[in-house]
Amino acid sequence: MTQKKPLIRHRGIYLLPNLFTTGAMFAGFYAITSAINGRFETAAISIFVAMILDGLDGRVARMTNTQSEFGVQYDSLSDMVSFGVAPALIMYLWAFESMGKLGLFAAFVHTAGGALRLARFNTQVEVADKRYFQGLPSPAAAAILAGGLWISLEYGYQVESIKYVVLVFTISTGLLMVSNFRYSSFKEIDLKGKVPFVVAIMCMLVIGFIMAQAQTILFFLALGYAISGPVITLLTLRQKRQHRKV
């Protein structure tokens, strides 16, 4: 009597969300190659394209119930390329190359901050409060640098006159990513629910306003979000101290 061979199940991956993740990683890679070839505006825009695709992969996974451990890890690797390595290399090639070791140090702080932030996020994903991120998310950190670069090119700022400002921003984004400041995750927003028609009109106007001055609006949105972390954290600590006194 012949024995039946054991059924071997091949473990696959969900295609749809991982396609968006791959697109985000390619946009980050394309940003690096554009900066190497001196096309810094294209590099900055590519970072924002990566941000859009990175935001879509998680939303699509949740809406289609296709979340997986593979997707989480793949997304983190993509984020490291697009929002950790790419912005740091772009800043180095654009503003820091003439600064020697100081420029190298600033670029590395951002890269290391991105790596540490992603590693911490992965280890705390099951226990962390879903309403908040601990530390500045790496896409927002990358948006500050890419937005600042885009504005500088748009308005013709000479990089030699602002390179130390860029240096401070680059180091600051790296440190904010590994800080304990709390940032809103906006995950409580329900995109599947119905909204009044006026909300759709407002969204259309907001998108049109952003597109009219994309580089300026996106930069200040990212900068405002970065500032919101210390503000939220300080207000939370103040409330806790007041409750203790009562």
Supply the key terms.
246 residues; Four Helix Bundle (Hemerythrin (Met), subunit A); mainly alpha; globular
What percentage of residues falls in helices of 4 or more residues?
over 70%
Q: Considering the protein shown, what is the CATH homologous superfamily? A: CDP-alcohol phosphotransferase transmembrane (TM) domain
Spatial gap, N to C terminus: 80 Å
Q: How many structural domains in the coordinates?
A: 1
How do the helices and strands line up, and which of them pair or pack?
Elements (H helix, E strand, L loop, with lengths): L14 H22 L3 H24 L5 H28 L4 H24 L7 E3 L3 H17 L4 H19 L4 E3 L12 H16 L1 H32 L1
Antiparallel strand pairs: 1-2
In short:
With 246 residues, the chain is mostly helical.
How does this model look, in words?
By secondary structure, this protein is mostly helical. Helix content is 74%, strand content 2%. The protein is built from eight helices and two strands. Strands 1-2 form a two-stranded antiparallel sheet. The longest helix is centred in the last third of the chain and has 32 residues. It is globular and about 50 Å long.
